[in-house]
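Hello,

I think I submitted the EPZ job twice by accident. Can you confirm which output corresponds to this input? Input:
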Amino acid sequence: MDRLRIEGGHALRGAVAIAGAKNAALPQIAASLLSPHSLTLQNLPEVADVANMLALMAQHGATITRDAGSATIDAAAASPADTGYDTVRRMRATVLVLAPLLARFGQARVSLPGGCAIGARPVDMHVAALTALGADIVIEGGFIHARASGGLRGNRLVLPSPSVGATETAMMAATAARGETEILNAAREPEVVDLAACLAAMGARIEGAGTHRILISGGTVWRAATHRLIPDRIEAGTYAIAAAITGGQIELSGARLEHMAAVVQALEAAGVRVWPGDRGLIVAGGGPLRATDITTEPYPGFPTDLQAQFMALMTQAEGAAMIRETIFESRFMHVPELSRLGANIRLQGTTAVVRGATRLKGAPVMATDLRASVCLVLAGLAAEGETVLNRLYHLDRGYEQLDVKLRRCGARIERIGP
Ligand code: EPZ
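Support: Only one job matched these inputs. Its output is below.
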């Protein structure tokens, strides 16, 4: 099992090419099952979660053709094979195949995902949305058994909370339902907007993506399509914090400011400079860092996927920063590991109080989930001495060549064996 060895204390300088968004790629790969025609996705990130999702398409009978940075999925011969527990346990996003399989074939059998390091991660809103569209769903033996023998029917859906995945499930199902569907309290994330753009390229008629009210006309006549993924705002935010925490300067090539407003606002409040460059956004640290409170919220609020990374930065800021997590019930797995590096963090329910600035000292640390892992890399870049991060597979799920990109900016970081 690979590990990462980091020697901290070096300011990072250079440019990083921001990859396509993992959380846009995963639902769009699943959406390819809706159509008997091919879907080509460009700007595809080379990360394990994408490779696993493409492999799942092949398990369902689709043929995959890979090219540099893109994949063509031809689901003409796809079938509603089971999506087993092992597949879904390893990657919760595979539950997103439920809606396309049900919409196209009238049936689907997908394992319940189960929980993960950051929370219980239920799928009740996905199930409720499909039921409201006419599906008969029975949950038995750890599986979701869904049927819609007479096809799905458009309806008005009100999501109890703006769940990204449930919005994506409802959108995909509604494109194949009979009649109109209105989704209220929809998630507004850029990845939801990008899925709508991809579905539209495939022939769907969708209005309002990016707002809380999305209208979908059913009965889509599908066509072959090509779609280019948006850049990954979470990867971009991660490298922005890498520049800030090391006192360096990095140009985030391809990053889109309009997807990162809340993150840029928090960074600037903390004393980090951000300005538009020729190829994207330039982020510079180096000045004194100020403790800055954040609360994670649905988009356009501060993203929960950058909470851990921002916490690492706050260990280097003067004062006490209150970091409140409102999206997932246990997304503080990185706190005990940061404390091993010398951070001063107290947990009070869903709030972490980070007192800085503290001099971090390198140590062996354990990765628990994707974003907690990268938070520990960021802390290691700022720590004195050597930090070794175990369980590197967590990182490889969502970051394309993280060590290579950081090394190109001057980081002393290398993969080492078990
Ligand atoms: C997506 O997960 C992302 N994953 C997550 O990124 C991200 O953290 C999350 O959205 C929030 O932005 C992908 O897009 C593949 P939710 P998702 O449904 O769709 C609860 C990463 O690190 N909920 O918006 O699962 C849920 O438990 C990952 O890249 C229900 O209760 O998130 C959570 O508390 C981590 N019932 C909250 O809603 C449901 O049916 C928000 O979840 C669905 C969700």
